[in-house]
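dumping this here so i dont lose it
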């Protein structure tokens, strides 16, 4: 017997509230495990994890057709987890860029080369993010979070198509 499909509102609540809170909790647990003290930076990183959880959850819901294509449960869970992880990292990077360039004021552009300066500053800030965030996401927080997201957001299995009998040959 198959489970009834989740109402769409339940999946949206899980993506918009449960996953960001879970991401923040896992990130805070990782910070405590690393023995870091709680400063403005650690609060900010925990908030970025919540933004990443929201972005990853919404990306899974937007690409729910990927989930429906796979018929095997393990493949559906794997695809959902990978889409969530990609959205999680992308949303965290976007938040890091907005904070690093826009809010903290680490952007100094010359008026004649504004777009070039913006591109190089974005690349430098993105590389700084890619260097500094793996200790917080690996070895266990990101895989655990992707697994929880796959379990929470995977939709119902696609229904098997009924086989119709062939018409008689005579």
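and the seq i came up w/
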């Amino acid at each position: 017997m198959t489970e009834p499909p989740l109402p769409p509102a339940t999946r949206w609540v899980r993506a918009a509230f449960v996953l960001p809170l879970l991401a923040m909790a896992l990130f805070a647990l990782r910070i405590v495990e690393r023995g870091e003290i709680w400063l403005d930076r650690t609060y900010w990183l925990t908030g970025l994890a919540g933004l990443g959880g929201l972005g990853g959850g919404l990306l899974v819901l937007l690409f729910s057709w990927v989930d429906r294509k796979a018929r095997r449960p393990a493949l559906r869970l794997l695809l959902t987890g990978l889409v969530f992880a990609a959205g999680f990292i992308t949303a965290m990077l976007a938040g890091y860029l907005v904070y690093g360039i826009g809010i903290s004021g680490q952007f100094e552009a010359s008026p004649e080369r504004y777009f070039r300066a913006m591109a190089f500053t974005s690349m430098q800030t993105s590389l700084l993010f890619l260097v500094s965030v793996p200790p917080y996401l690996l070895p266990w927080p990101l895989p655990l979070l992707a697994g929880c997201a796959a379990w929470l957001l995977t939709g119902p299995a696609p229904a098997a198509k009924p086989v119709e009998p062939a018409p008689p040959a005579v």
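Helices lie at 8-34, 40-62, 64-69, 73-103, 114-132, 134-137, 141-153.
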